[in-house]
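FORM 7B: Structural annotation worksheet

SECTION A. Query
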Amino acid sequence: MAAPGDGTMTWRALWMETADRLGSAVEARWVCQEVAGLSGPEWAASLDEAATVRAVARLDTLVERRRGGEPLAYVLGSWAFRRLELAVDPRVLIPRPETEDVVEVALGLARSLLAAGPLAAGTLAAGTLAAGPLVAVDPLVAVDLGTGSGAIALSLATELPPGSLTVWATDASPDALDVARANVAGAGRAGRFVQVAQGSWFDALPAELAGRIGLLVSNPPYVGLDDADLAPEVRSWEPHDALFAGADGLDAVRELVAGAGRWLAPGGVLVVEIGHRQGAAAAGLAIAAGLVEVEVRPDTAGRDRILVARHPA
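SECTION B. Predicted structure
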């Protein structure tokens, strides 16, 4: 930093200088707010206050990390996802808007299942799956396989009525689960309804859940090993075991659809995030696995993104 951090440089001046260094006033504001520990009206009210020596030193460190190519979310140590502010670092993927779309679909299906009530049969809401018997589980058992930061599991627990469901959040990576546990602990009351378990896909689940899961959601790795579209920043910084899934990117999807029949309750629903060019292939895998009412839904950009299928009743 050009300023010595001797209490003579204001946050406004630091913001402007940081914007020059990062080439983005928005990123500069987020980094300055992180260092100042302020946001919103409090941040605006502090702009003409002098920063401390320690704050300037920390700001300089964060700016250099970002200039070195580290993703902004990792530099900040947290990232917004729907209603949540999640701790993130290189042990987990950075939550993305496409996964928010997946959660939106999962929430709609969960509400339809909950509205049907325990031991009930009926139809899902218009515009979702076709008519068919619904899952008979009370409260609803939901699972987020490959949870990473816990974004999907905590969104379900936060945005659905308290006590209406139990969510299992699993991951093969103990490092990722450390991040997820921290986010569960910081989620307040909603965190009470989230169980965290380690293991590869369905291996993480207790045997008694077989045939009882109403909603199975996952954002698995779905990038092909040689995918030229993957941004260099993502390839360099984010965990490869959460990104890559074989030559065609579908290895994890194959495991999920193959195991869904055993673990879903009759009428239970599978929701999986997929790559935007994988819709037809993923749907074919689900049909071959015996799942029914298979469809691929778009994300907000209009690209194939969400595989939805139901366990036959």
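SECTION C. Observations
The beta strands are 78-81, 84-87, 140-145, 165-171, 194-198, 213-218, 264-273, 292-298, 304-310. The first strand starts at residue 78 and ends at 81.

SECTION D. Sign-off
Analyst initials: ____
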